[in-house]
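hey m, so remember when u said the tokens were messed up on ur end? i reran from scratch. heres the input so u can diff it against urs
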Amino acid sequence: MKRHILGAALIVLAGCTNSTAPAVQRTAPPGALETLQERSVEVLFWDDETRLDRFRRMEDLFPGIEVAPSPDPRPLPGGAPLPAAASNRLDEAIAGGDIVGVIVLDDGQVRYEQYAHGMTPDDRWVSFSMAKSVTATLLGAAIDDGFITDLAQPVTDYVPGLAGSAYDDVTIEQLLTMTSGVRWSEDYTDPESEVARLFVLEPDPGESQVVTLMKALPRVAPAGERFVYKTGETNLLGELVENAVGMPLAEYAKTKIVDPAGFENPMFWQTELTGGNIGGCCIQMTLPDYARFAQFILDGGADTVPADWIDAAGSTQVDFGNGSGYGYQWWTYGSGVFGAIGIFGQSITLFPEDDIALVVLSNWPSATGDTLWNQRVKLAYDVRAAITQPE
């Protein structure tokens, strides 16, 4: 599917009339296309004050696709207050200063919801790599709809621009589990790393930026043998789904996630220079709508994905040892627990056995760090323990 450069004007993608707002529409703020290549690197190096301002309004800075909310929003009824041990633990975490919002769902009910730094339930916040789990869910929907036949198919069946590259013998499943064996650097502190350069280079004619970048990378390991975390590969996965279904990810998400999950507010999904959604990053949603997505996954995907998709996606496909691993664009923590994460402290942690979800939106001082993530996982487990084993 050939991509086209976005115009700065609004382009309607879904049908509408003069009296009906479009369900899906492209947006590009003044100068967004001209500055995308520069701003895409700057995001990693914004200071604390700039992040607090811009993480809640990325649609004012970058091109993307706005998706209307569900016509039938899912209620999020209030539940009983959390046990003191759990609420105190979350209060302490928020007092640390880096968190902007937390919500805890227990059996679909809100048992804790707090905001900081001026955030409200109606404010959107950037997902960063939590978008990867959304893209993987849309891949499952494309399989369920018959657009994609088999995870064992070559990636080049759907992204022909990769033909003749190191991706020639890579399957969709290997792309999905980031085990392609293709070289990649996900160093957020290096402006010359591949992850920082994703939206910097000029695409070859008729190609997306990600295909132009990825087709030039060399192989460093046999396909299927080595896990390396690669945002670029989820961007390829997003293009693969778009090519298979014949529409942008955001438009497909409208019918496969936004409406069935019952999102109450509009969702924004950033696009790259040639107009495709960024599969590995940059969705804007409210905290309650992130919680609705979490519950949608806990409920099994509302018949929009194959019956066994959520179980497979949240299971360890790549084992890191010590009970942790990687599934289909979800991080796994053992005993059926899995979650989505994004740089600067965005996280969804799911406890399917207990029907508990913890969603945290943050403004960490650095993009990532083992200590920060270990603390976040511990927070989730502490809250779950306080709910399921109250004193």
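this time it looks ok to me. The CA atoms of residues 178 and 227 lie 6 Å apart. if urs says something different then somethings off w ur setup not the seq
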